[in-house]
UniProtKB/TrEMBL annotation:
The lineage of its organism: Bacteria, Bacillati, Actinomycetota, Actinomycetes, Kitasatosporales. Residues 39-58 bind DNA. It holds the Pfam family TetR_C_24. The keyword DNA-binding applies. This is TetR/AcrR family transcriptional regulator.
Amino acid sequence: MESSNAPGGTGGGRREATRQKLYEAAVTLIAEQGFSATTVDEIAERAGVAKGTVYYNFASKSVLFEELLRHGVGLLTASLREAADRSAEGGGSRVDALDAMIRAGLVFIDRYPSFTQLYVAELWRTNRAWQSTLMVVRQEAVAVVEKVLREGVEADELSDEIDIGLTASALVGMVLVAALDWKAFQPERSLDDVHAALSRLLQGRVSGNR
């Protein structure tokens, strides 16, 4: 599996493995040439399966891509939640949890840059059949950050002047855009370096003087 191109899964079974191949093929091709220009024949060929296998697993190219978005953002959401939980179990503050989630987001994007590029591009489109699904899964990711921010305010670790919804969206957006800029224009920088820069921004802008 080319882990830099598409989110991976750990589910067993031949069908799950086939769906994973189709996810990888679709995200790679669509990143290269766009959704409209990518055909089911090309996806099948890239995945090394028959065209009928695509339709057996997904009703259409649009359904395949919608499920790809759901799958990928689900993995991102899980990684953010796991990072926050690990931080809490280690006795960290909510700011520590936010910092851990920033790193988890960077790790995810470092592994799946093509998926992240597609995801960010799709957020700005309004004419897609999967727009409502994308908004739902996006909110699931943002909600993980909102929860930590809310707990931080309640515990008096964060300022009660924080707009929780907007701040959560801003933090997620910061990681996505900064990471894409890193991969596209500053690839010589290490993940640790990028994380340190975003961590300093978090400490100064979210935690304040507390």
